[in-house]
Specification:
There is one protein chain. The protein has 343 residues and is an alpha/beta fold. It has one domain. The chain contains 13 helices and 5 strands. It has a 5-stranded mixed sheet with strand order 1-2-3-4-5. A hairpin with a 2-residue loop joins strand 2 and strand 3. The longest helix is centred in the last third of the chain and has 81 residues. The protein is rod-shaped and about 155 Å long. The mean pLDDT is 79.
Amino acid sequence: MDNDGSYKRIFSEPRMVQDLLTGYIHQDWVKDADFSTLARVKSDHISDNWDQRFNDTVWKVKLHNSWIYVCIMLEFQSRPDRFMPLRMMTYLGLLYEDIVRSGQLLQTGRLPPVLPVVLYNGTPRWQHSVEIFDLIEHLSEDFQCFMPRLSFLLIDEGDAVRDSQISEAMKSSQNLVTALFALENAPDKYAILTVVEEMLQWLQLPAQQSLSRALAGWFDRVLRPAKSNIDDIPAFGDLTEVNTMLRETVQSWYEEAERKGLAAGIKKGVAEGMEKGMEKGMEKGMEKGMEKGMEKGMEIGEEKGEAAKTLQFAKTMLQHGEPMEKIMTYTGLSRETVESLDK
């Protein structure tokens, strides 16, 4: 199944169509629509007649006892198609022909209204007109009444969801289409896991098991190949299994990051510890050295002070005419030192 087929499978589920209408079409009639009557209209033969030019899903829902058709065109190209209004007009013509041929006219004998929706997820934002009228050369004002007028509702995913985080508003609405867009914009496994866990809470399992499998298929065929940081996750058949594996891989990722962080922390801690130790050692060494120096200096000072006193005492004895032998005995000085004092 290709990427377009995976999206088509998702929007073949009534819950996704309802969330698309209620979340992105802000018109009064949506509030009055009876979504319990939402039913898919087979349109494969229309695509076959045109060599599968259209990747579509067609639904109908009752509004005031009358049917409204919703045609969702899934446009997953790298760039916007300027001629999408022409493609849509062609397709709606085929759809209306099929409605007439199959006898599905309204009780009034008229064709049912059709809401044309184009869901686009390319990277460049859509800048082209959504109106067929704008594709046609305007010759004169009086000729414009013969020119077709048809526009479609464009949902440009890049503009619809700019944030991959699950907001409080998203939690409140529990809109699975918004969550799908958030998954495509999720930057890493943790962000993806957060969205998947929310989606599982919103899904009404087991009643919506088919949708869970469709989302898992989309995850496997579309999201996983598009994001290199989750390509190690194997294919699964159910969104709950995707959630389990995501949780395990995120946990292993954190454990690996923790191990790397611990090793780096130890290495950095040893280096910083050695640096701090050297600083402390130098401080303590300088402090100890200063203490030793002061002690030695005091000892030397005291010694020099005592020597000066001895010399002064010897000088005094010489001045009083004391004999050399007596001075040498009392002071402990040598003869040469005492004689030097008498000069």
